[in-house]
Amino acid sequence: MSASIINESAINQSTGSREQPPPGLVGPLAWLRTNLFGSWVSTAVTLALLYIIVRVLFSFVEWAFVNAIWHVPYSATGIAQTAVCQDAKGTGACWAVIADKYRLILFGRFPYDEQWRPAIVVVLFVALFALSTIKAVWRKGIDSPIVRYIAMSGAGLILLDNAAGLLDTIVEVGFGVHLPLPFGLLLLLNTIGKCALVFGLLLLWPAIGVWIGTLAFIGILMFGGILGLTAVPVDYWGGLPITLILATFGLAFAFPLAVLVALGRRSTQLPAVKMLCVVYVELIRGVPLISVLFMASVMFPLFMPPGINVDKLLRAQIAVILFAAAYLAEVVRGGLQALPKGQSEAADAMGLSYWQKTGFIILPQALRLVIPPLVNTFIGFFKDTSLVLIIGLFDLLTMGKVALSDPPWQSFSTEVYIALAVIYIVFCYGMSRYSRGLERELNSARGR
Amino acid sequence: MTGFGRWNTRSTVLAGLVAGCVLGGLAPAPAHADGSGSATLDAAIKRGQMLCGISGQVPGFSLADSQGVMRGLDADTCRAVAAAALGDAAKAKFVVTTTQNRFTALQSGEVDMLSRSTTWTLSREGNLGLMFAWVNYYDGTGFLVKKSAGVKAAKDMDGATICVQPGTSTELAINDFYRVHKMKFTPILIQDTPEIQAAFLSGRCDAYSTDASALATFRFSQGAKADDLVLLPDIISKEPLGVMVRKGDDKWFDIVRWTFAAMIVAEEKGITQANVDTFMTSTDPDIRRLLGLEGEMGKALGVDPKFAYHVIKAVGNLGEMWDRNITPMGVPRGINNIWTKGGLQYAPPMR
Predict the structure, then answer these.
(1) What pTM does this model have?
(2) Residue B270 within any structural domain of the chain
(3) What is the pLDDT of residues B276-305, one digit of tens each?
(4) Chain B residues close to A242, C-beta within 8 Å
(5) Exposed / middle / buried, residue B134 (Cβ in 10 Å: 0-12, 13-18, 19+)
(6) Of B11, B93, B328, the CB nearest to A310
(7) pLDDT tens-digit profile of A387-426?
(8) How many CA atoms lie within 13 A of A205 on its CB side?
(9) Helices assigned H by DSSP within A133-182
């Protein structure tokens, strides 16, 4: 009783009799005075830095906008006459190089008249990322036995066709004959299966359905060959779609794999699995990405019988997935180790199974702890995809270099690299902003 | 989704299974009793495409233009062979290869031929199971210096600093050259082409050394400032850039080699892309044999009798290929001319 009275009076004192601070101690002006003009040294440094910043900013604006050259004339044979740009070098930017080459840099050697397709693909990727940041999308959808049945039978139809196709290819390679199977019907069933799977997943987990559906549509747009679209082989892809495909597919597949590997590495009951995970992680971490890609591109084809060529992009994609998964697995393991043992013991005491415990208790807490390093790895891999250059795949950065190899434009690398940097910054900064938002939201419980 | 999903699962699983089959010795040798006698050509016909390995990054040889179309001497070489072998230059499919994976790509069948500014050397032909069908560009290591330096020949450059890309045949050639002439030089090793060019222009090195063709191109790209730079007359190494095929398919080798011969003969006779049709009524027996009007030249190679006509119609003669791709780079033709004009390109008779 007496304690509560004391408390109340304490509260009254601290809230009721609060006075406003004297004017001149709060507000932007006060902030400026304390932080920038506190003493004469501080004032001098502030003024000097201000001068430098303004000077640099002004000369950049002058170079990038005022004196910039946006167009150059072309000769009758279509060769750019860059003499204007050469004269302006040092005083003004030559954005004409971007005007001339932006489609080559963004879409590579994709057939010129069909470049609306990779353009839509880029928009789809961005839309997919933006949509995924909305929390409502990740809610569970309609979970009924019928929906589950639709999705499962869809997956079954796809598997049926793939199994038949695989069997037929093996027989063809081994004995040189085709199996008498109804391939037309199987393909039809496969298509129906895919539609059913996407539809089912869309109802079950809207987010996963949207992802699979969008990625499938992206595949159709890039490959073509159906729905009246011209087929475009992977060799003609390049630029931003390659970067986005490698990064998105790579991380989308690597993350689940990484969680499994991290769990496997901490497993106490399955020593063989644990050993396998340790060897996998240490082996992949022990070599640079460039050598994994190199193996995939130079050594792998030599092990294949003649005439069997696994697609170059697919080889690179698998190498990226395996590599990213090893790094992400260690990040996830860090999160697992940070959890107090009591969490797992409490779950055991509740009688939860291993997967219930992992799925509902351990992982949600562990992953939330490691959001910053996870996003760090994501951003790193988004940029690391440029290494596929060494196996002859031209991503965004390499297409920029190709554009710069054209003799008339050879000396305007600054402009091209600035343009590329802007694209990279937009994507990487987007990722880091999203992760900060996610962190704040998920950790709001801890601040309470 | 057809392409991705199916290819994904099928090819990866298949890869493992097939590798197992081969190790077990189960895979039978494919029979090629029927067809043209060239496994490579048969596969290309079946595929409807001739797979041609290129660099994709060298201006004048193979580089995508602003529309994404592959341009250059190497690219046109691919088109010429596709026109000869399949009758259609558009059936050349360009596969980008790197300096590291180019030979593997050809060995493993990822490409049918390699037209990728590759120097013809004994060790490459002897060790790799590959062979050179023809040389499409005779290059050599040269030096570019500033006019203000007053250097007239490579021998004047004792004690010079030279910008060079590490690990290239240029680096070896310069070392040999200076050792032979008992002179000293300081190499400045820079990997990236734009950086090495900037270093040279800013005066970090006295000379910039690489293939003479690349030096001429770089000098030309400087526009009005090109006159400040001098390409020294010394060519200190031989770099014949050749077109490679796999050993063991001699018929395919023949097709590639005689595609070049046909383009050279066409230049000798003044036959061009534009006027080739007017020669169809020619009475010159050489021209009649070239254009498939008499004799059975195409049949001997296992291709269309009018294969040379298709080549000329698609890319023109050897000189036109040069003029279209290399002349805009500001490189004089020199030893790359045909033999009647003082060059090295000499075609055996087509009879």
Answers:
(1) 0.75
(2) no
(3) 999 999 899 999 999 988 888 888 888 999
(4) none
(5) buried
(6) B11
(7) 888 777 888 888 888 888 887 787 788 888 999 999 999 9
(8) 7
(9) 145-175
In a domain, B33, yes or no: no
Q: Dump pLDDT digits (tens) for B178-223.
A: 999 999 999 999 877 778 888 998 889 999 999 888 888 888 777 7
Q: Is the pLDDT of residue B244 over 70?
A: yes
How much is the pLDDT for B77?
A: 95
Residue A122 has pLDDT above 80, yes or no: yes
Chain A's closest residue to B104, CA to CA, is: A298
H helix intervals, chain B: 2-23, 39-47, 73-86, 102-107, 122-127, 169-180, 193-201, 212-221, 250-269, 285-290, 297-301, 307-315, 318-325
For A297, the closest of B9, B10, B101 (CB atoms) is B101
Q: How does pLDDT run across B63-79, given as a tens digit for each residue?
A: 888 888 899 999 999 99
Largest CA distance in chain B: 69
A109 and B12 within 8 Å at the Cβ level: the answer is no
Q: Quick check: is B174 in a domain?
A: yes
Tell me how many residue pairs between chain A and chain B have CB atoms under 8 A apart: 178
Q: Which residue of A has its CA nearest to B193?
A: A405
Q: For residue B216, give the CATH number of its domain.
A: 3.40.190.10
CA distance B295 to A201: 67
| Residue whose token pair is 């004409």 | A96
- Within a domain: B192: yes
Q: Do A173 and B329 touch (CB under 8 A)?
A: no
pLDDT at A96: 82
Contact B65 A389 (CB under 8 A): no
**Percentage, residues of chain B above pLDDT 70:** 90
Q: What is the ipTM of this complex?
A: 0.70
A72: Cβ–Cβ under 8 A, 6 or more apart, which residues?
Answer: A80, A81, A82, A84, A85, A94, A96, A100
Q: Could you tell me where the beta strands, DSSP code E, fall in A376-416?
A: none
Q: Give the domain extent around B151.
A: 141-236
| Tokens 């850039």 -> residue | B241
Best mutation site among A115, A198, A308, A417 for testing chain B: the one with the most B CBs within 10 Å? A308
Count of domains for chain B:
1
Cβ–Cβ contact A165 with B under 8 A: yes
Q: How far apart (Å, rounded) are the C-alpha atoms in residues B41 and B168? A: 34
Average pLDDT score over chain A? 82
In angstroms, the CA A67 to CA A56 distance is 15
A112 with B104: Cβ contact below 8 A: no
- SS3 label, residue B138: strand
Contact assignment for B98 to A162 by CB distance below 8 Å: no
